[in-house]
Amino acid sequence: MSIETSPASSPDPEWEKLIASYHSGPEKTPAVDLMGDTPLTPAWTKTSTGWKSRANVGRVNTVRGFRKWLRRQGTEHGHAAQVYRGAARVTVWVRGVEGVEVAKAKHEARRAHKEYRQAQWANGKRLMPGSVKDKLSREMDKAAEDSERAMSKYRKARKDARTLQSLRAAAAVTPLAAIEGAGLYVGGGPGGLIAAGLTLTGLALVGRRTTTGELWSDRDAKIGDGDRMTETMLNRVYRDAKVIGSDDVLKLTTPCTLTADGKAWQVVFQLPSGTPAKKALGAREGIANGFGVSVQQVHQTRGNREDTIHLRVSLKLPFSSKPARGPLLDAERVNLWKPIRMGVNLRGEEVVTSWVERSGLFGGEPGSGKSAAANDLLLAAALDPTVRMYLADGKAGADITPFEPIAAMYDTDGDPDKLLEILQHMWDVEIKERRALAKEHGSRKLTEAMAAVDPRVCLAVLLVDEWSSYGAAADQKTRQEMERLLRLIVQQGRALGIISLAATQKPDGDSVPTGIRDILSIRWAMRCLTPQASDTILGQGYASAGHNAQDILKSQRGVGIYMDGEGAEPELVRGDYYDDDEVAAILERAHRLRQEAGTLPLGPLDRLRAADTDGSVLADLLAMYEGGVELLPAARALEGLTAAGHTVTADRLALLVPRTEEEKRRQEIDGSKVSVYPLTAVRRAVADRYGITA
After folding, report:
1. In this structure, which long-range contacts are made by residues 443-446, counting pairs with CB atoms below 8 Å and at least 24 apart in sequence?
2. Mean pLDDT, range 276-281, rounded to an integer
3. Which of the four, 203, 337, 391, 477, has the lowest number of CB atoms within 10 Å?
4. CB distance 391 to 410 below 8 Å
5. pLDDT in tens, 550-590
């Protein structure tokens, strides 16, 4: 391997250009940020939207700070308590320690005076020898001198103390008086109030420490109490959660900052050597406790290194507000070959996913929002008029009923035989046709470039909702055949433009066969009842690594842990929600697009007419049963077929629509007994001969 170098003296055009653009002149402005300061002030902050966002963040932080201040006032760290302590400490300082010397001198003076009084009393006795009298007299004189010296020392100590106290009082009061006087002189009454505020602020600073020496910042600050995230708080929380040792320290690679929208604190840090990221990711409960928030507000992801953690602590419960308007309501049409939006993440960013050559598994307990999440893909596919849709609902609900008019094949009754028919059609027809198209284009897979030049190349979406319901209703042979076909479609249809999606309320091996579940690349775990259920959707070990769908609250409907198979880590995502009226509006637009493009699926009668001549006869015959008619007179049936352009005799009609002996009996219609053709007989004939349910 060689590295190209250039001599130091060689001119560098790029550098010269930078220097030239940096010099300012009469008509030049700095065009390059040589010091790298621009990234610290993003350009969007200078736009109207940026100013609005910053103003909103400022408002939120102001309200939060005021509430925090109110809570503080009831504690020993309240500002009134600080001012009181400050005033008391200034008073103690002014008084000083000279009082001890004064008290000592006073005590000495009292003792000396007491000794003098005793000596005076002893000298006053009359009946004693002269020599004793002289001795007592000398002791009295000496005691008098000691008493006088002690009083002089006491007076001096008291004078010195008063002098020092006066000097300290002047030192304490003069600045306050100067500030107050200056305030009154410059600003009058308002200036005096400002000066008084400054005085109180100074006293509060003096008294900011409690009698035990603690500061407001020394307590166990918590984000849930309105405190800001700091490095000290971060280390304390992770130590208390037993993630790091008592002597370990987290290394911050970014500062603790609020997000641009002001909704969360975020930081990136490195764990101490030997501490795996999995240990931090699995300690969410302890970390949430340390921050004073709920588990749902703490979100950790592993960085691009094993020792790196990206931490986000939301100030409020994520996704607790009303979801925003879904983008598909304003989309005229969608190109499913391109990535589509599946929802928004914690940071408010769009989560987009390319479904080409992909398949997915959505799971979660009933009411967690699986159907709404699946609608994000189905509605987008509906707005692409080239996409064929194959839908099956094992729980026989109404979730896919609105899609019936545009679906190529569907089952809303939970009928295993109908699902088997759909899967068999996809394997025998769709897969076969798509293989032929890929071979024709000389490729192993179908691509968007082929679709641009060949209208026959298109995507197809297969949804199987609640596989377990189909399996429970089918016999063993049918169930095994359905599993075989679905596995083949998922495996081989991926490169042929078939997107497979499975949704289930109970994500286990019975709901979605393991062999199929393991090859579904995109996972979305909605709220689950157990960590094991969450791991069944996302993969083994994700719950213990901090990605546990059991932690999602019931109030967070439509929220799930999303893993698109390409991202480094799963993330919490809320899918876009569309109510019934919005779904109807989108599907009405989808129907119009498909009608204009000529891609609406053929109905039963259209498919019957396209089969052969007899099928056309039967289709026109079925069209005569309108308005709830169950019995059609044979004569009227022949007249209607003749009017439709068919040459049909009574014998041929009898062959086309076999009837039982009971059905051949004449029925009384309009006062006359005539031969009739029951609607059930015609439908039976169509189903037996063409396999079409009309």
Report:
1. 444/495, 445/357, 445/495, 445/496, 445/497, 446/495, 446/496, 446/497
2. 89
3. 477
4. yes
5. 888 888 888 988 988 765 578 889 999 999 999 999 999 99
Nearest 5°: phi and psi at 25? -140, -165
pLDDT digits (tens, 9 = 90+) for 432-443: 999 999 999 999
Farthest CA pair distance, the chain: 177
The average pLDDT across 534-559 equals: 83
The secondary structure of residue 224, as a DSSP letter, is: G
Query: Euclidean distance between the first and final Cα of the chain, in Å?
Result: 72
Give dist(CA 525, CA 690) in Å, integer: 42
Task: Identify whether the C-beta of residue 524 lies closer than 8 Å to the C-beta of residue 559.
Answer: no
The token pair at 65 is 């700070």
pLDDT (average), residues 463-471: 87
Instruction: Name every residue whose Cβ is closer than 8 Å to that of residue 61 and which is 6 or more positions away in sequence.
Output: 258, 262
Which 3 state secondary structure label does DSSP give 266? Answer: strand
Contacts of 164 (CB under 8 A, 6+ apart): 96, 98
Please state the pTM of the whole predicted model.
0.65
- Answer whether 423's CB lies under 8 Å from 489's CB: yes
Look at the alpha carbons of 654, 655, 656, 662 in this order and tell me if their dihedral is positive or negative. positive
Gap between the Cα atoms of 657 and 192, Å rounded? 107
**Residue 694 pLDDT level (bands cut at 50, 70, 90):** low
CA gap 446, 463 in Å, rounded: 20
Query: Degrees (nearest 5) of the Cα angle 651, 653, 654?
Result: 65
Query: Which residues lie closer than 8 Å to 99 by C-beta, 6 or more apart?
Result: 161
Are 644 and 620 within 8 A, CB to CB? yes
Q: What is the pLDDT of residues 160-169, one digit of tens each?
A: 888 888 888 7
501/480 Cα distance (integer angstroms): 19
